[in-house]
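A quick aside before the break. I want you to see a complete sequence-to-structure record at least once, exactly as it would be stored in a machine-readable document. Don't worry about memorizing anything.
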Amino acid sequence: MREQIAALLKDRRRRLGRSVREVVEALEDSGVHVSEKTVYSWESGHRQPDADTFLILCQLYGVQSLGEVQPSLVRQAAPALPEDALGVARDYAALDRHGKNMVKIVLTEERKRLDEARRRQSGGEEPRHTRIIPLYYTPAAAGMVSPAAGQDFDYIEVSDDAPRSADFAVKIDGDSMEPYIMDGSIVYVNRETLENGDVGIFCIDGNMICKQYYRDGEGNVHLLSLNRSRSEADRYIHCRDNDTVMSYYGRVILPRRPPISLA
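That is the input. The structure line, written in tokens, reads:
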């Protein structure tokens, strides 16, 4: 069945003439955040989308009703879903991104409540803890006083796999921080105090940027691109510069502190 689902997804996308990147962007508009690699893995049969994502894909690919899909494929993608659950899924797919965010928050909290109740009854192990944090689609959105939910940010559910200290996440555009932060990647951010060598989210004269922080012995601030071939994107603020306005929004959580290079 896995191979049949893969063939279905690949065939539908190609018939519509849509690229994998276009599918990823369309899924993001529906509140589903996956990479191009994930879409390719669905189409190769190495992985399968969950039931909600499968229904959204059906909508994106112009499947007017579940009856148009082979029943065996529907059962494989969404086993034993009653009609009322399918109705809820269709209603969810029709919501805008803000509505989907609100539904996700409710579902996450209700799952946590039920999991905890079951654990107490069975005396089982502690469930994996999940929580909701905002994901900003640009560093600029992270600096807005009131960003637009569903446009500039979404709420995402993170588990213990994400750093416990993360307060929010930001999607990074551009290659100036490679190879530590790749173009298009999502980084977790907390509000801890910066030390030399840390990477942070800053606002310089109204422009939000992600750079490595270094304050030299004279008090001058260097905001550095980790990709030194993009050193033209560095920012330098002299200790006696009273005109430049710099604000700090958070420290990017990385596995290790990158070395500092002023060259």
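Two observations worth writing down. Strands lie at 131-136, 153-158, 168-171, 186-190, 199-204, 207-215, 221-224, 235-237, 246-252. DSSP finds eight helices and nine strands in the chain. We'll return to this after the break.
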